[in-house]
Amino acid sequence: MSLEHACARVVLKPKRARPFFGRHPWVLDSAILRVDGEPADGAVVDLTTHDGLFVARGLWNAASKIRVRLYAFDAATRLDASLWRSRLEAAVALRRLLGLDDRGGACRLVNSEGDDLSGLIVDRYGDWLAVQVTALAMASRLEELCDLLDSIVAPRGILLRGAERGLSKLEGLHLPDRLVRGSAPDGPVFVTEHGLRFGIDLTEGQKTGFYLDQRDNRQAAARHARGRRVLDMFCYSGGFSLACAVQGQAASVLAVDSSSKATALAKANAELNGAATITVETADAFKKLDALKVAGERFGMVVLDPPKFARSRASLEEAMRAYHRINRLAVDLLDPNGILVTNSCSGAVARDDFLMMLSGVAQRSGRSLQLLEVRGAAADHPVSVSCLDGEYLKCIIARVA
To answer: Whole-angstrom distance between the N-terminal and C-terminal Cα of the chain?
Structure first.
């Protein structure tokens, strides 16, 4: 039987249906009373209340705590090629409305739950697409989805990038990086962002190659950089560094990352943009911050954009300690009236918790922190109000007195 024909029914426990009538797309195993039928992983299932009322239609995965991912909330909608095409076309149309359809640039075309395509991420870099699948439901339809993307976007090539190792294990995914359609670029793909040029490594770069979610936050930081000595920790390929040096006209920028591949990219991008005021260094962030403090170094701005410290709720306490430590070190390096640009990409860390951590940093350091901007991801990373779990990025710009 086709995966697109509902052949099983997932029955919710009493009083557990409200979030799904509210269109939340994740049905956890703990909400399920029973399953009528034996759905294969990736198969279409109908979600009902305990007394038989239709709630939604989704895709089954027995290996995941998210047993069902929901894609339709009326019984007449089929989970077939026409639905996937309409969702993909709507996502592409939104980016066009946002003015992000320039083939010389880069943007996120599909943002999983934010575009009603839970488990699918698609980023466009020039003429290439990088696809990341984070759910078995989408993995079972990868070829079909890539065919649709090929016809809608007409890229030169589509590359598959593996999901995070822990997420792949939780979803039962085994998808190695590979070329799915067309041809692969024979080197870095060069894109323009707000007038800056970046070389993107689509085969080995972090995430799908670049931190597109920080596009507008880099510009926001640059507006505070004029004449300042800037420290950019976890610089990756130099996005914040370049914005501050070139557009922000910082006096100087020290860009630091622990990855030699990342710092090589940052150096190349600095040279590409003629940013002679940027110095790039490979070093562990915590050790470098400690060394700068011991040496009595001071900066007018510190940018912190660390990797995901909290990968789950279980690691939240440890993550908050790491965020506190690194922000405390940054504050100690700032001149009076300096600017702190601090970020968290951990979805498990709520915005209020991140702000409370900064409150603790202010208290322990004896410095006053004034919030100037509280920002999130760029507009091509939309968040569904039915699934606020998708709001992961926090970018705080604060003045440190």
So the answer is: 66
Question: What does DSSP assign to residue 29?
Answer: G
- pLDDT tens series, the chain, 401 aa: 444 555 799 999 999 999 999 999 999 999 999 999 999 999 999 999 999 999 999 999 999 999 999 999 999 999 999 999 999 999 999 999 999 999 899 999 999 999 999 999 999 999 999 999 999 989 999 999 999 999 999 999 999 997 766 677 778 888 889 999 999 999 899 999 999 999 998 887 667 889 999 999 999 999 999 999 999 999 999 999 999 999 999 999 999 999 999 999 999 999 999 999 999 999 999 999 999 999 999 999 999 999 888 667 778 899 999 999 999 999 999 999 999 999 999 988 999 999 999 999 999 999 999 999 999 999 999 999 999 999 999 999 999 99
Q: What is the pTM of this model?
A: 0.93
The single residue of 107, 235, 244, 345 carrying the catalytic annotation is: 345
> By the 8 A CB rule, do 383 and 391 touch?
yes
Do 266 and 331 lie in one domain? The reply is yes
Domain with 52, as residue range(s), is 9-72
Q: How far is it, in rounded angstroms, from Cα 339 to Cα 66?
A: 41
For residues 179 and 236, state if they share a domain: no
Beginning with the edge strand found earlier in the chain, give each strand of the sheet holding 394-400 in spatial order. Answer: 278-282, 252-257, 229-233, 299-304, 334-344, 394-400, 369-375
Q: Which of 72, 91, 125 is the last residue of a domain?
A: 72
- Catalytic site includes residue 345: yes
Element (H, E) at 129: strand 128-133
